[in-house]
Amino acid sequence: MTIKDTAEEWQVTATETPFVGNKTSVRTDDVVMPDGTVVRRDYQVHPGSVAVLALDEAGRVLVLRQYRHPVHHKLWEIPAGLLDIPGENPLHAAQRELYEEAHVKAEDWRVLTDVYTTPGGCDEAVRIFLARDLSEAEGERFEVSEEEADMELARVPLEELVRGVLAGELHNNCLVVGALSLTAVLSGDGVDALRPADAPWPARPFEA
């Protein structure tokens, strides 16, 4: 038996969009169950996101601290952002986010992992990249606003992030998944075994 997620689409007999927001919306579908009954499912429709685990030559990860109003916390996170343009190459979006949030560029990019953040209630898909060979970006810094205006930046050893995750001190989804995934990579087949940065992403198809 192969343990692998598979695409599948159950019959939808009716659908509506009761709420449309600035970036996301809420959809209500009437879905036919295996026994023939029809149930209503509400979920958030999301454009998708990218995140970047940027690792420097000293084994430190670039992280930022940002206020997240829905959970009423300041969370330590890795750089991340929305796929604002339908069909946008996720690598280009990740490079943009690393520049805008940290004023950093990277020469080596790999796909670390792909995840659905909350598949029970949202269709958000996130591609987490590993970025290495970091350097300061050229030009002026991107002008941040709103929650990002209060951001703090730091470089933290990967081992310290893993300790914080397992101690229940760090909670951001992308940071948790990224740090634990990279730890598994480094203790396993190594970075060269990771998928290339332009690997296909069925959850959010794009043009190379």
TrEMBL record:
InterPro entries: NUDIX_hydrolase-like_dom_sf, NUDIX_hydrolase_dom. Keywords: Hydrolase. This is NUDIX hydrolase. Residues 44-178 form the Nudix hydrolase domain. GO terms for molecular function: hydrolase activity. SUPFAM superfamilies: Nudix (SSF55811). The keyword Hydrolase applies. It comes from Streptomyces rectiviolaceus.
